[in-house]
Structure prediction request, 293 residues.
Amino acid sequence: MPGCLAQDLVDRLLEQCAPFAFPMHFNERANGLAEIPAEAHAIAQHEHPHRLLVTTDTGKRFDVAAVLVCSGAGAFAPQRVALPEAAALEDRHLHYAVRDTARFAGKRVVVAGGGDSALDWALALRTTAARVTLLHRREGFRAADGSVAEMHAAVAAGEMDFVVGMLGALKTEGDTLAGVDIRTRDDVVSLPADELVALYGLVSEPGPIAQWDLDMRAGRIVVDTTAYETSRRAIFAAGDIAFYPNKQKLILSGFHEAALALRRAYHYAHPEKALVHVHTSNNATLKEKLTHA
Prediction:
């Protein structure tokens, strides 16, 4: 079945958005969300009385008509390698996610972990890296049976290695990774390595969202499926963070939820305008914008 990496999907979606040239703000977290008092509206001379103020961890302030929360299951932090040498190597030779497979080309790579991500990336990188070693503390995995079988077949074919053990130390030469020490049941094994990918899972926390006075259940935001609006007016949620009966955590579902939420959000931003549904195939203005992007 044809597929693509998550980063490829993101890149294609950004390319699709490019003709509309709307502002984007990356590497920021929305910390505060509050209604702007009515008396402030007159000062700002807004046409519409209901406005929201979003503040970020970088100090930016956004005066908006509506907010759509698409934060996944919350703010994620990776389970980090608890070794003294780890911090200095992070983002250079120690990785908690794979964003660009090309950086591992021709390298000796150790992938540590026992879940689907560890299996999938060890298998994927074996065709790019000089050598891949999968490291897990035990023989059993918390991963799809098919991936486990494929990994064992790849090991048997000499395409990669699998070691049962735990990280004991990271060996460095200057500011680069040179190898890892692995504590096995009986011994310590030294393994040369240029890159370490540690996929021990993620720690999820709602973060500032929990302070936004939204109706939440089990760390997720309760929404009305008519337009995926939350318990607060003009605040919407879509994707894994949204909770409703029979919720399916699928990319397809997230796209559907976001589309309906934004249709309602449009009315908050432009209550005096009618929202007309159009298709790219028969709307001349939209076709021209996309053609000349």
